[in-house]
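User:
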Amino acid sequence: MHLKRWLTGIIAVPILVFLITCQLRLPFYTLLYLASLVGLIEFYRMTVPDLPKFVRWSSYFLTFLLFVVIFERQILLVPVVIVLWAFVPMTYYMLTHPAPSRQWTSDIGKAVLGPLYVSIPLTMLLHIDRYYPKGSIWIFFLLAVIFASDTGALYAGKLFGKHKLYEAISPGKTWEGAIGGLLSSLIVAFFFLKIIALHRLDINILILAASLSVAGQIGDLSESMLKRNYGVKDSGHILPGHGGILDRIDGLLFCIPVLYVYLSFSII
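Assistant: Predicted structure:
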């Protein structure tokens, strides 16, 4: 399993670095949309496999529309797309399912939760890259910190783990692993900023790195909760050694809004 994880990383990381640094931004934005699309497919397959095709495909289309709206700098249209994620399934169920049922309300809630959970954070990443100064470097910083946190938590947990972090949700995670992930993210953030002149090394940036590590671990636990609730081991099998797209980006989805808020207030 570890060999597959590292081989997948060795292949995927150079491709990701090339796409982020490439002057043509469209390939990177296309990758973000494809990750969002596959993540949505995995989420719906896991949580509401019987979701009507019309609702499912309208969600995929609205995700594409949101990426286009941000790419074209039509930011005022973003709330419209988000509202449609709720209005479309509600209208569809109202017209096609006249008899009352609590299950339909549950299905509508899951249909809306999917894009909020998967798509919006990834469009925030597009927004960071397209509109914020040094956006692509900030994305590298984010990925470096999260990778360090994941790796540090994994190996610190295996070497020193004794006290369960949240046994009901993820029996393998420990407090020692969580602390190892936190320390690893701080160390990587320190050296990243020493090598690349992205931001002055101060308490604020270290708090950001720590916050990203904590958010990433919460995101990991949250997806573990979903998988445990629905009795699945992995969200998919697209990435050897990692499972599905959601299994790989679960922590990242929780971290992107943290970085987005930090950069928004820093620019202001």
